[in-house]
Amino acid sequence: MSTTRTRLTPAVAIVGGGPAGLRAAAELARHFPGRTLVLEREQRAGGIPRHCAHTGFGVRDLHRVLTGPEYARRMVRGAERAGAEIRTGAMVTGWSPGGGLEVTAPDGLYEVGAGAVVLATGARERPRTARLVPGDRPDGVYTTGHLQNLVHLHHREPGRRAVVVGSELVSWSAVLTLREAGCRTVLMTTERPRGEAYAALPVAGRLALRVPLRIRTRVTRIIGKRRVEAVEIEDAGTGRRHVVPCDTVVFTGDWIPDNELARAAGLDLDPGTLGPVVDGGLRTSRPEVFAAGNLLHPADTADVAAIDGAHVAGSVLDHLAGGKGPGGGVRIVAAEPLRWISPATHRPDGRGPARGRLLAWVDEYVPFPRVAVVQDGRTVAERRLPWPAAPGRVFRIPGGMLDAVRPDGGDVRVSLRR
Question: b/e map of 317-334 (b: 16 or more CB within 10 Å)?
């Protein structure tokens, strides 16, 4: 027996009420007379920033420094003041046979048939189980998101002594959350040969937060029956292992996109990011479906995700106006040590990437990389950049390096040279 669903027909449906989705909603509602509907599965919109009490949000998009909750509130107010409708507690469970979104909400079941859909579902950290860390299965093991939810939303204490696994920007966010909750970080461990965050952070961490960082090490076992009692750490160079007493372990970074809806829609997925393949205008392989934010580049900062949201709004407006989309594109291939690059399609007659930057992820540190763009065996652009390519944070490549790419040529290969 089929279940009756109330049908809604907004001009645009945005799945995800984080920075990317809310900024897209604000721009679309401000510039298009039709209904803009945001579907957010949490009880409050705002995304991950509302869990992050520390400062540092809003620099690139709002040109000011805010705490995470302040930034989230601004994003929500901006969308609502522009006229967007935000429905919270609305879980998008799949796609209907007619191509609409199937939604389960507190007030019933819905099918949302929109003229355009923007997927802004974000990304999440891999938990301990996905990282295959052996040992006991006690309480006290978290991801950063779980930790911040526990501390900032439920006002509970995680423990007293913590080990943080990873040294990305989000790892230091976890340290600040632990500190606010009265939990001391006794060790930060990473398998990398250097800290993955910006160089100033480990120095500040040692001096101000008194957090020791151990590189080339990994957690080989979690110890404790009912509650974490310790972790076993292995030195990659010597193979020696030692035990670090603690009652809390936080696994940070190692991001994967929340791509379930993209997969269910049959969208082309990028093998590197596991998110949808998009062009510079953030169009997916389905003309009416767009994507933005950390679903595409897991994971960049909240302000970059918001800028994505503003960028995708332009492409959605073109689509709703009935404009002819750009022509065929060429594939952008990330070569080692690049793991992925976004966008992964270049259309010479289409919109360029947000902020004029290609976003990439690397697996090894290159201090001043020379970026090479090659098509059909010919180097069409080469440039040395004054900023490093480092694991654990997004590497930015000027989009203008694709200007000489031929639309009738083969795949474009982007690589780094020392």
Answer: bbbbeeeeebeebbebbb
pLDDT tens string 377-404: 999 999 999 999 998 889 999 999 999 9
Q: How big is the CA angle at 126 (ends 161 and 237), to the nearest 5 degrees? A: 65
CA distance 287 to 319: 8
Q: Residue 113: exposed, middle, or buried by beta-carbon count in 10 A (0-12, 13-18, 19+)? A: middle
The answer to whether residue 338 sits within a structural domain is: no
241-277: per-residue pLDDT in tens? 999 999 999 999 999 999 999 999 999 999 999 999 9
Look at residue 229 and tell me if it is in a domain: yes
DSSP 129: G
Contact between 348 and 341 under an 8 Å Cβ cutoff? The reply is no
- The first and second tokens of residue 412, run together, are 């474009």
Residue 298 and residue 257 in contact, taking contact as beta carbons nearer than 8 Å: yes
Q: Which residues lie below 8 Å from residue 321, measured CB to CB, with a gap of 6+? A: none
**What distance lies between CA 115 and its chain's CA centroid?**
26
In a domain, residue 318? The reply is yes
Q: Based on the domain organization, do 357 and 263 belong to the same domain? A: no
Rg (CA), the chain: 22
Which helix (H) or strand (E) segment holds residue 204: the answer is: helix 200-204
* 287 plus 249 within the same structural domain: no
pTM for this prediction: 0.94
One domain, residues 214 and 261:
no
Q: Which amino acid is at 135?
A: G
In terms of residue numbers, what domain contains 394?
346-417
For residue 405, the one-letter residue type is: V
Nearest of 328, 294, 320, 293 to residue 309 by alpha carbon: 293
Contact (Cβ atoms closer than 8 angstroms) between residue 213 and residue 206: yes
Q: Which of 316, 348, 318, 319 is nearest to 332 (CA)?
A: 348
